[in-house]
Amino acid sequence: MDNKEKIIMKSISCFRNNGFNNTTVEEIARMSGLKKSSIYHYFKSKAELFQSAIHKEFELFIEKQKEIIQEDLPLEEKLKKYLNFRIIETFKFYKEYQLLNRDHSLPYHDIMHQETDDLVQKENEILQEIFWNYIKNEKNIILLCHLLSSISQSLVHKHVFIKKNTDHLEEKINALLQLLFDGFYDNLNNTEFISPNWDALNTLFQ
Hints:
By secondary structure, the chain is mostly helical. The protein has 9 helices and no strands.
């Protein structure tokens, strides 16, 4: 591991524990076993280092998601495992960075929004890869990926910021998949959608 990578990994620990405002470059340098000037050799500012740390976190997150989609599983099981991992790990991420929720500095919010937008785009690409071998109509694949992405983002928001727990999350994922496979999955290669499973839909949004 070179010095730049070491700095990024040590900064992740600092930002998780202290938040953006309360983390100092001096502390990161000390934990990295380097001089403060060495930090600025690789990063122009604390904000740039923070962005590199978050980017690294999301990069590792995406790598784990890609491992899931490479597994030899039926589509429904693969989706269940992917969605469960995605939402649980996102919950853990925000919980570990809970001190950041008290930060109101502009650099922090701008960086988080930018990196989150990039993450969602990459996750959509992963979802498209999951469906590519099962659904031949590209337009329907894109539509379905946007639907699943939006619903999973909604579940993340509800469990992270409102409920602040993952209780009954598995039930909601099962309801989502039931809605998908019993509702309109069989017709995704056609132009006609059959009626969704309303019981599953009701469970999903409770």
